[in-house]
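Weekly sync notes, structure subgroup
Attendees: PM, AL, DS (notes)

Item 1: joint prediction request from the bench team. They want all two components modeled as one assembly rather than separately. Inputs as received:
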Amino acid sequence: EAGVTQFPSHSVIEKGQTVTLRCDPISGHDNLYWYRRVMGKEIKFLLHFVKESKQDESGMPNNRFLAERTGGTYSTLKVQPAELEDSGVYFCASSQDLNSHEQFFGPGTRLTVL
Amino acid sequence: DQQVKQNSPSLSVQEGRISILNCDYTNSMFDYFLWYKKYPAEGPTFLISISSIKDKNEDGRFTVFLNKSAKHLSLHIVPSQPGDSAVYFCAASSLTGNQFYFGTGTSLTVIP
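Output from the run, pasted for the record:
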């Protein structure tokens, strides 16, 4: 069974540009999460989808970040316009149901904003 | 404010010896705790978990201990192997929410 996949693995952009990250969860997993790790710091929650609905977006830093999950399958996270402090590794995770405490993580997208 | 803390950024242990990784939390609403292991350029992978109704959970070489009164948990790896070298993240969640709160990670190096 395929795990969580993320694309791209790396992205280097200039301040002010737009970047879109994609996450494909494990097939059949209704729950999808986005996290971010800024260098050397903790992995921080951004938001949680249940199918196509945003269940919790309390971790989104500001309105430059937009997450979508059309059709309840893959998800995208757009940063527009990107700022220097947005650099970090963005992880996506999925889980089968709300009672499952185990989240399966993708390999992450390393975003560098210059 | 960080609710899960791993105060040791790194740890080196000889192969065959015990590795002890520590984690402290501040939120008394947390009732489920997990350890994730992360290799470079990979995502975190689930290692072991414990619910707040227990004080110990064992899985092979890995044991997690929970001290609720001290808001402290630890991961013991016995015996340590070179393949255990990775970054270990402690995470916590509560029944009322599904987000995980992670620590900053501890980089474990097992020396052959």
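Discussion: Chain A is about 0% helix and 50% strand.
Action: AL to compare against the crosslinking data before next sync.
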